[in-house]
């Protein structure tokens, strides 16, 4: 029954009484009207009687079926059962309920004919019957409702009140520990400040910001060491932290400084949803390593199977740590000596930085350590063809080999050195990596979640300008006696490429590496010739630049030319040239390659193009990134990019508004010294 009969019956009764009264009044005036009205009243009485009779028969039939299935004794027992129980018939209408249901669920009222859906608002009878029960919230109670079908249209539902247990479980989950490990990114730079007063002022202010942030979210604060802190929160505050967008990142950077050495920043790793407090703490350290590997000034949250990132807008800062480089070089020397052969491989569509790094390492390994080595590269897909051709002309050694050849000569003692990438998805040949039992990684790109985790040595410097810069530092410890001017020029070309002629991401280490290579005969004229283009490539680049559009200070160019084999190089160069346009903070060049749309992204530092490309399935660096979209049209890829740029712009505006509001309300940090 879809509705209770007694909700309709009173209307028929009132209607019948009214008709009879009208008939009595009409009897004195018109006999025909009187007879008509009496017939209508009689029909109304019959309808009420028939409806009630049908409903009673329906109830009797349904209850009889239930009694037959349950047994008479059990059926009587259900009436006194201290759990609310209802029996439903067709259309999920209630035909029987026990005393407990009437007292607790229906408030003492007769609910015959009501739909059981009224008492299970967040689910359906069909779902309950098809599963092992369902959680139901009714009033201020929480129930587990279990259904049992007795016939094709007869079912019994039990409402088990487990409010206490569910609220206890909810409180348990919300009170689970969340461990945050905070690191003062550039504490070492401020520790070296000669002004003791200013150094103490900065460190104390940073700690003050962290302590107040912990107190604001009711966290337990503990200083681990100089520049590293631990905070334990409860799971219930995670939403509040994310809604706050981790404003602590901006609050630290807003600390007023007298002598600006660099802008103070912090990185935070958070571990949550772990099985134990110890595991949660370990996850927080892993998340912190991920945040630092992506350049710092950001938050990484690690759960069982994923990472989430917040912040990461500012550029990383350079750390001069030659001790670490020497230790890495010493580890590499041990691995090379215990190998029978060394293979050097980079990312697919290898560029001059990738190949130049390989050439520099090849020189030290083969000439100074006297170990056979080869650079694995697909010559038909590389964008460093000019450098490979140049080295093959001047060197008679078998420097470059194809992946198939590498697979055929590999043994269990072969060492694979992966350069200019740390993701297994971007390797020149994944099969070479899978076959290698010993792996070393050298890369400068910001850390990706899916990174190579089984390496013997993982040399990762997200603040280095290029992989060639890192290789140049290593070569000074591995051996440089055999480094020729051409091999030095190859390394210098790699640095030149990734720094955009020493404009972007250059630091003291970058110029030291360049000076070192210059001392070994690196010729800048040779480097310049390696970057020369044909007239056709120059025209293609000019076309991309002239057809570009400006959107939110981002230059966007698209090319549907699927026949240009050199378009990868041309697109990257066009993206670089677009940055020279006034008021352009980032550039994106999109081009077709087979069934994919590739994107080359560049910026001058104001926009983190890595974050934008990651949302499109790619990655890279703060100022240089890319992505490859499979099976999409150029129009769809462009629409995706515009949407992400617009959302990024809105997020930055919201962050600025929050920052301004904080300053107005007096939240901005005051000097305490």
Structure report:
This protein has 673 residues and is α/β, with parallel strands linked by helices. It has a 6-stranded mixed beta sheet. A 6-stranded parallel beta sheet has the order 14-13-12-15-16-17. Strands 18-19-20-21-23-22 form a 6-stranded mixed beta sheet, sandwiched between helices. Helix 18 (485-498) runs antiparallel to helix 19 (508-519) and helix 18 crosses helix 20 (524-530). It is elongated and about 125 Å long. Mean pLDDT is 83; it is low at 1-7 and 661-673.
The proportion of residues in beta strands is 15-25%
Alpha-carbon distance between the termini?
A: 78 Å
Q: What is the residue-averaged pLDDT? A: 83
Helix content: 40-55%
Instruction: Order the strands across the largest sheet as they lie in space.
Output: 7-8-6-9-10-11
Shape: elongated
User: Strand pairing plus helix content: what structural class?
Assistant: alpha/beta
Brief rundown of the structure:
With 673 residues, this protein is α/β, with parallel strands linked by helices.
Q: What order do the helices and strands come in, and which of them pair?
A:
Blueprint: H1 9-26, H2 31-70, H3 72-80, E1 85-88, E2 94-97, H4 99-104, H5 125-130, E3 134-138, E4 141-149, E5 155-161, H6 163-174, E6 177-184, H7 187-191, H8 196-216, E7 220-225, E8 228-234, H9 238-243, H10 248-253, E9 266-271, H11 277-293, E10 298-302, E11 307-311, H12 322-337, E12 341-345, H13 352-368, E13 373-376, H14 385-394, E14 400-401, H15 403-409, E15 414-419, H16 430-435, E16 438-443, E17 457-460, H17 467-478, H18 485-498, H19 508-519, H20 524-530, H21 535-546, E18 549-551, E19 554-559, H22 567-578, E20 586-593, E21 596-603, H23 609-614, E22 619-620, E23 624-630, H24 634-664
Helix pairs in contact: 1-2, 2-3, 12-17, 13-17, 13-18, 17-18, 18-19, 18-20, 21-22
